[in-house]
Amino acid sequence: MTILIKNATVLDLNRFAAVESDILIEGDRISKIGVDFEVKEKENLKVIDGRNKVALPGLINGHTHVAMTLFRGASDDLPLMDWLNNVIWPSESRLTGEDVYWGSLLGIVEMIKSGTTTFCDMYFFMDEVAHAVEQSGIRAVLSRGMVALDPANGEKGLKESVDFIKNWQGKANGRITTALAPHAPYTCPPEFLRDVIVEAKRLNVPINIHISETLDEISIIKERYGTTPVRHLESLGLFEVKTIGAHLVHVDDEEIQILKRYQVGAIHNPQSNMKLASGIAPVVKMLEAGVLVGLGTDGAASNNDLDMIEELRAASYLQKVSNMNPEALNAKTSIAMATSLGARALGLTEIGLLQEGYKADIILLNTNETNFYPRHNIFNLIAYSAKGADVDTVIVDGEIIMEKRQLTRLDEEKIKFEANKRGLKLVAG
Ligand SMILES: [Zn+2]
Q1: Has residue 353 got a pLDDT over 80?
Q2: Is 268 annotated as a binding residue?
Q3: Average pLDDT in the 59-85 region?
Q4: Which residue in 208, 316, 326, 372 has the fewest CB atoms around it within 10 Å?
Q5: pLDDT the model gives residue 38
Q6: Does domain 2-57+361-407 fall into CATH 2.30.40.10?
Q7: First to last CA, the chain
Q8: Which CATH class is domain 59-346?
Q9: What are the CA-CA distances from residue 339 to residues 12, 116, 336, 344, 348 (Å)?
Q10: Is 210 known as a binding-site position?
C-alpha cells in the first residue's frame, strides 16, 4: 500500500525542528518527506489529512513484561519482596500460554493506543507473545527471561531461548527480532552468564538484562563477587555483546564510563523505579557522558500503565526534582529518549526517526484538543501536555494499525473480556 500524509506538522529529531510537510510511505518505508512533490495517481493510494496533527516517530518502549497487564492493580503499595513473594510469583506460577497470549494482546492494544510502535519484552511463553505481536502489527524485540539459581532451570531456559530465536528472529517482515535475556546478575550465576554470552555471539543477538535496579541487588553482588553489578558483568565479558540493560539506577561515575565505552543501551524506567521505591537513575549524568539512554515502562504490575507519553514526562520531572534543576532533561531530550535515542539503545537502526529510507513507524497526534492550545512550541506541548489519548493514527512497517483511534487488526472488546477473566482467575488462585 502507498500512504500519503498531507499537511502534517512533522518532527525532525535530527535538527529538533517541526516542519509543515507531507510524508509519502511506499511499502514498509518512508520514501519522501517534503512539500510540493508529485505523487502519481495510484490505485492503492491512501491519503491521510494531516492538518491539526503532528507526526512523530512511533514511541519505543525499551523495557516491559507486556503480559503482566494481567496483574495490573492486583496488589499495590507493598515492599518489593512482599509483592513478588505473595502476589506476583504465586500468580505467575499459574500462568498458561493462553493467559500470556491474551495478556500480551491487552498490553499491545494499550501501547498502540498511546503511540508505542516498538517494545522490548522479557517474559515466558514467548511463542504466545510473538503470536500476539505478529497479529497486532506492532514491532518488538522479544526475549525469554532466564533465571538460573537452579542450574537445571537455567539450562531449560537457555534451550527454550535458543529455539525461540531460531523460530522467530526476523519474522513478520522483520517486525520481530529476538534477544537472550538472563534476568539479572543476582539471579544468574557467572558460569551461566558465560554460556549465555557464547550463545549470543553465536546467534548474533543482543542480551537483554536487568542491572542495578535496587540497593538490595548491589549488596548481594558485593557480597557474592566483591564488586558492583556493572563491573561484574564487564569482567565476565557480557558487554562485548550488544547489551540492553534495564534500570541502571545505582551506578557510579566509573560504571557510567563503562556503559558508554561498550555502547550499552540503558533503559530508564522512572515510574516503576518510583513506585517500587528503587531509587533515581543518574540519567542526566549518563546522557552527558554519552550513554545511549532509552525509556521503558516496565511491566504494568509496577507502573501501572504502558503509556510512553506519560513515561517521558515522568522521566523529565524526576530528573528536574532530583537534580534540583528545572533545566535538567528538557522536552526535546525526553522525546528523543522515547524515539531516536531509544532505538539506538535497543540497537535498532531503521526506526526512531522520520527520515527517508527509514521504516514507516509513524504516529499522528491529534493537536485539536484544548491541551494543545495555544501553539507556542510543539516539543513542549508533546513533552508536557500531550496524553496517550491524543494519539489518533498509528502506522507500523507501512501499515495503518490504528486510524482515528480504531484498531484495524484487533478486536479490542474481546481482548478486554478475555484478559479480565484470566487476570482475575490467576490472582484469585
Ligand atoms: Zn523488568
Answers
A1: yes
A2: no
A3: 92
A4: 326
A5: 84
A6: yes
A7: 47
A8: alpha beta
A9: 11, 10, 5, 9, 11
A10: yes
